[in-house]
Every structure is written in structure tokens, then in C-alpha cells.
Amino acid sequence: MRVVHGAGPRAVRVAQWALGAVGRESLAGILNAPGLELVAVKVHSPDKAGATAGNGVVTTVSVEELLAARPDVVVYTPRTPSVDEVCGLLRAGVDVVTTAFAFHPARMAEPDRSRLLDAAVAGGSTLHGSGLNPGNFSAAVPLALSGLVRHLRRVTLTERADWSVYESTSITFDAMRFGRPPEEVSESASELLAFNADLFRQQVWLLGDALGADLDEVVTEHEVVVAGERVPVFDRVIEPGTVNAQRWRWVGRSGGADRVEIDCMWTVGPTTADWPAAQHGWTLQLEGDPSVSAHLMTLASLTEPRTLAEHVRAASVATAMQVVNAIPHVHAAPPGFATSADLPIPRSLQGFREPASP
């Protein structure tokens, strides 16, 4: 545990890496959290450098300038993570919280796991990955609710989402490959889909490992359904005969019995998929003694009128805040890896305090 000597605790110095949909929200979270001090912001494109990001900090493309600001923690939120980048930060003695990967490094493929661990040990730093799903809804929440249960038999998280309202069409069409022929929508056909699937498998392993399921394997089941009509989605179109529905199931089994499952049913517009009826959002079920069920959603407000765009953005806010609010716990953790099973449950740092003026 890191101890700061002196008259009193100082603020944790935080740098933000990347300002995409999630990064913009984590930046706002850092600026409004008591006990955190923004000291650097790294952007990807030179045309975004030199802008004031808050607290007098000017954006930069330089990793050297970021490190020169002496951050204690970096909030790392690029769309595609780089093990080399994160190893460099960890080896420099900087803790990393990320929404991009490393949700359960113990089940991460080699040699990435060893490289990250060696860098963290060498730098005396800590790596923590979390978010929404994978993240809070598939790890922190089920682990917390398991405290109500004496004996577990099965844990299931079902996610139902319509991606047609998600404005980041590059993710919907390019990364997730909606609008492609069925044979192009699989782990074997896409490195990004394979990477994404591995993150969810890590979450299943995390719950199994943390709750004593003694899983023998985590398997992936994948099904796609094609559109029967044209589906316009912002600046793109899904044509008939191309994929507009994907169902991914990641199932952890022990002794042939399903113990932990994440079931994601994702569509873009109307679908003919014959799938189980599920409420939009996330439904968590813990079957055991006793059994517990909870439905989870992220919305801009439950009581006030908001636009659809604001409701969609709420998921990015939640993703970002799961790691921002964990910063004090991560910074106090021993060097190495810290998962959602290792850390105390994060609570809102800003709480009821009004946001700072822009």
C-alpha cells in the first residue's frame, strides 16, 4: 500500500489517455471528484493537441509529456488497447485503470499476462480493468449480490440491446461487423470479435474463480440472424441478407453443468431471431439458496425527460465512472493485478456534490 507522508493526504494525480466516448466521460469524472487532480491528457491525433482540457491542462500526443506530469494513475480508455503502451506506464511506476481490457488477467493469454505483471512488479504499480459489461454488471454486481446467498448453483447475466440507437456506427459496423454476410461475423473472421469474446470469457472465469465454481472450461456459443429488409442506421445501411442480430453466449461449466453464463442478444433494428424474450438492459439471476434476481439499466434520468441520445450516452458515463471511482482503491492496492473481485466496491466520489463550472 502506498503511503503519502506529510501533513495530510494529497490528491491522487490522474492523467486521462484518449478522449473518445468513454474518455470524455472519465475526464469529466476526474475533474469533479474530490481527491483526484487532473495533471495530463493524452490524445491520439495531433489536431486535437494543444486544447485546454480542464484544470489548466493542455492536451498532448506525447507519452513523455504525460509522464513528465508525474501522474499516480492513468485512466486508459482507447478503443483498441496496446499491451506495449500499458507496460510502459506500469514500468514507469504509474497505476493504470482501463475500460479496454485486463478484466481478469489471471485468465489472459500468454505472453501478454506475464509482460503486464512483470512491468507492474518492476514499477511497483497496479493494473485494474473494468467497465459495464464486461465490468460492473458482470462482475462487481453479481459478486456483491452473492453476499445474500448461502449456496450458489448458477449465475446468469442476460444483456439485450438494440444497437440502432448507438451513434458510433464505426463500432457497430466495423468492429462488431453488423451489416456483413454471416460468414464474416465470427471469431475466426475478425480479430476484434475474437478479442471481444475473450474479454467476456475472462469475466466468466472471474466469477467462477471468485465464487469457487471450479470451472473446467468456458465455451463460446455464437448465432447470427440476417435482416429481412433494409435498416438505415445514421450514416450506414444494413442490407437484406446481411447480419443484423448476434447472440453470444459465454458459458462456464463444471462437471458438465452450466455454472456461470453471460448471454448477450444484440440487434440492429427489427429482427426475426427466435430468441428468449428479454427486457432491454441487463438481467442478473443468481440461482441458489436463496435465489436473487435484479434488472439493471443505465438511463440519463429515471424521472426527468431526456433525449434518446442522452440515454445512450449514459452507458458511456457508467462505463467510465466504474474505473474513475475505483482510482483510490487501485492506488492503494499492492503492485500487480487488481480485479473487481480484489477491490472494495467503488462508490461515487462526486456523490451529491454539484459539478464544477466548465
Automatic annotation (TrEMBL):
Residues 144-351 form the 2,4-diaminopentanoate dehydrogenase C-terminal domain. This is 2,4-diaminopentanoate dehydrogenase C-terminal domain-containing protein. Pfam families: DAP_DH_C. Gene3D superfamilies: NAD(P)-binding Rossmann-like Domain (3.40.50.720). InterPro entries: DAP_DH_C, NAD(P)-bd_dom_sf. It comes from the Bacteria.
